[in-house]
Design a protein that fits this description.
Elements (H helix, E strand, L loop, with lengths): L2 H15 L3 E8 L3 E9 L3 E7 H4 L4 E7 L9 E7 L3 H10 L5 H4 L2
Antiparallel strand pairs: 1-2, 2-3, 3-4, 4-5
Length: 105
Amino acid sequence: MDIRYNINRIHVNLSDKYNDVQITEKASKEFGKYFEITINESKILKMIVPFSNIDGKSNFEVKYFSNPLVENSELISRDTNSENIVFLTEDIFQNNRFSEDYIKI
């Protein structure tokens, strides 16, 4: 599965579950080219998916910010695939898997 197929599947699956899903292409020295996925529900979830993680792979690693309001907050790694990413995001939201300073907001 190539990058476009995977990111389109991710977008469709997340958009079926959440009203506000944004996917932006970005680049950095740390990750190279990557997608930033932002889901804005009762809380905000920001995930990073490097191109190299989803290029030709069915299972891949995503990272999400423990506090999405702070760009240098801890990045939490999770393994998923384009079909199960909704379960991952549900788990993060339902179990408040964010830093304590973000949960208190």
